[in-house]
Amino acid sequence: MPIPIPPPEPPAGVAAAPALLAGRKNLQQLVELRWLAVAGQLVTILATQFLMGVPLPLAQMLALLGLLVACNLASAWRVRLPRPVTDAELSAALLVDVVVLTAQLYHAGGITNPFVFLYLLQVAVAAVLLPAAWTWGIVGATGLGLVALTWWHVPLGLPGLDLPALSAQYVGGLLVCFMLNAALLVIFIGRIGQNLRERDARLARLRQRAAEEEHIVRMGLLASGAAHELGTPLATLSVILGDWARMAPFAAEPELREELEEMQRQIDRCKAIVRGILQSAGEARAEAPQQTTLHRLLDGLATDWQRSRPHAALDYARAGLPDLPIVADTALRQMVDNVLDNAHEAAPGRPVQLAARCDDEHLVLEVADQGPGFAPAILEQFGQPYASSKAQPGRGLGLFLAVNVARTLGGRIEARQRPGGGALVAITLPLHALAAARPAHA
Q1: Residue 11: pLDDT above 50?
Q2: Is 350 among the domain residues?
Q3: Does 73 have pLDDT greater than 90?
Q4: Is the pTM value of this prediction over 0.90?
Q5: Residue 310, domain extent
């Protein structure tokens, strides 16, 4: 019984959704962190004023806290909007925090206040949430705030504490220490974030590869089962056609005899395809792999494709190719046939172009057609299963299999629009992988 292959979830928009949600989640985290900052500043101001007995300008500092609360309420409202949150909006929100912190420190001793190193928290948050360019902007803003606080601030009225003015050397060393810490935070947090993103990208590629291999296994089982089921009716049809060819009514009519011969050729082709499927599935291991050369393989591919499709036109050319001894690979033939078939279906009444050349130790096969070309959405999903412009169930598997065959051989398949109209698919394979004596069925 054929094994059903459920189509995967359509990838359109799946990759874009995390990018759209990332900014919103980052702003939500910033809102939550800011509520903690508001609570912490309120407790610190009240404790300093009433428990430690240090006089502070409560009206101004509480007004600044009110401004921070209003900004946070606006940010919380912004999170609920459907539009994605940009890096510029996140940077603006962090700049608000830097400005409010600078104003609070101005009323509480400036650079002499031990809470001045809360600037580093702003730098760390920026390094986690923002790209490098925006993060360095936050570093510059905090540095400017720190420099301004060395010149302009309201001294703290600490009872029994009469400190002399800070020397220029001390202030300079303090600024250098702050900028060094800020730079190290940005660099190392940025590197850690980049490593995490690269790890996630590798995991995503591995998951995609595992899903593709699962599809290939399912299709292989389906193809093997179909080949078994088709073997008997094809053999029966071949016997019936042989009997008809020997009958007098058919033998006496040249036109009927030619049609019978063409039907016999098509049945033989179907039987060859079935044999190839079974051989690829490992059920015909007694047959030795066929040794050939690169020129003979490519010429045979073009000739066989043209012969089996008499209504299709093929412009075939090869230039500058070394005639290397290679092993004829059924998967390689099927890969090229799939790409040629797609080009012929895109422009049925126009010739398909197949050009073979050598490019830096690689075999490059370019298949071009004169059809409407690839839609942008198809180019984005090129090589993924069931991504097809033919709007028919089960289509889009040919290029999917071709991409995976090329990847197995160490190559790749790329698609692009032709400047004069139509599409071009380029198959790039390393020559050493083709020339190596690879046992097809060890």
Answers
A1: no
A2: yes
A3: yes
A4: no
A5: 291-435
